[in-house]
C-alpha cells in the first residue's frame, strides 16, 4: 500500500467542490449557459424562470447538496479546451500486409473500448484511420477544470516502403501508437523495421543544429521565407555522486534559450550560442512559402520532445497566410489537407537529412 501511494503523481481523486466553487462556476456566462443551469435544477424537479437573475440561481443552487453527476455536468462546460497537437510519425518498413494492419488496429480498438474510451476504425483501400475519444483528469488544475476530453486521429497510410503511422504527440496517444506498431510487427510474416526521426546517434551539437537549418531549406515544393522562433538547448552535465556538493564551481547553468523575432538565424546572439559548440537547436518556427501555385505562406514548427537525446520528433502547421496580391497581412487556421501535406513534406525532408548524417538507408 505504501508503494502505491508513492507512485501517485496527483490525486487520488477530484478535489472537493465547495459551495463557492459551484457558485463561481455557474456565474460564468461565457462557459455555463442558461440551459445547463436549467438542467441542473430540472434534475431536482425544479423549474426555473428565464427572467430569474443568474446570480440568484447560482447562489441558491450552490447551497444545495451536490453529487458526482452535478460536478460532471459543470466540469464538462468548464473543462479545458484541447489545443491542436503536434504530429509525430513512425514508419514501418517491410512487406506489411493490409490484413496484418487491420488485425492490429481492431485488437487495439478492443483494448481502448475495454477501458471505457471511444474508438472507431475506418478503412479506405489499404489505408486505415483510428479515431479515439478519451478523457483524462489533470489534478493540478482547479476543481471544475480537471476534466479534459480529447479526440485523437491516428492515420495508418500505405507507402512504397510499407506503412506510416501519423498520430498526435502526447503521452497517451504515443502509447497507442507504439502498441499499434508492435501489433503490426507481431502479426506480420516478414520482418518489419521501425523508423523514427531521431538525432540520438548524432551527438555533435553543430550537427544537430545543422539538421534544423537543412530542414527548412529541403522542403520539396517550398522555400524558406523567414525564421521567427529558435529554441536552443545545452544539456546539464551529470555530476558524480562523490563530487563535493559544497563547491560553487559550475553552479551557473543556462539550459534553454528562446530567441524570437525576424531573421533569428542570422542574429549574432544565436551564432555565438551555437558557435560555442555547447548549445544546439531543439525547436524552431519558420515561414515556408509554396513555390508553385498561389504562393501561400505557412508557419511551421519542428521540435524534439526529448531535447537531451533529440528524440520524439514532431511537426506542427500553426498558421496559413494566404497570398493576396503578394501581401500576407491576413491569416487563418490550416485545413486538414494542408496539415497532412506539410507534415508529410517536413517528415520526408527530416528523414533524408537523418539518413545522410547517420549514413543509413
Describe this structure in words.
This protein has 361 residues and is of the alpha+beta class. The chain has 3 domains: 77 residues, no CATH class; 109 residues, 2-Layer Sandwich (TATA-Binding Protein); 142 residues, no CATH class. The chain is built from 10 helices and 11 strands. A 6-stranded antiparallel beta sheet has the order 2-3-4-5-1-6, with helices on both faces. Strands 8-7-9-10-11 form a 5-stranded antiparallel beta sheet. Strand 9 and strand 10 form a beta hairpin. Helix 6 packs across helix 7. The radius of gyration is 25 Å and the shape is globular. It starts with a helix and ends with a helix. The N terminus is likely disordered.
Strand runs, count: 11
Strand order of the largest sheet: 2-3-4-5-1-6
Largest beta-sheet details: 6 strands, antiparallel
Helix content: 25-40%
What radius of gyration results from the CA coordinates?
A: 25 Å
Counting DSSP H or I runs of 4 or more residues, the number of helices is 10
Our estimate of the beta-strand percent is 25-35%
- Termini gap: 50 Å
Structural domains: how many = 3
Shape: globular
Mean pLDDT: 85
Q: Which segments are poorly predicted (pLDDT under 50) over 5 or more consecutive residues?
A: 1-14
H-E order: HHHHHEHEEEEHEHEEHEEEH
| SS class | alpha+beta
Topology:
Elements: H1 2-7, H2 19-26, H3 34-42, H4 54-62, H5 68-78, E1 87-93, H6 98-114, E2 118-124, E3 127-137, E4 147-158, E5 162-168, H7 171-187, E6 193-195, H8 205-217, E7 222-233, E8 256-260, H9 268-275, E9 280-290, E10 297-306, E11 311-321, H10 336-358
Antiparallel strand pairs: 1-5, 1-6, 2-3, 3-4, 4-5, 7-8, 7-9, 9-10, 10-11
Helix pairs in contact: 2-4, 3-4, 6-7, 8-10
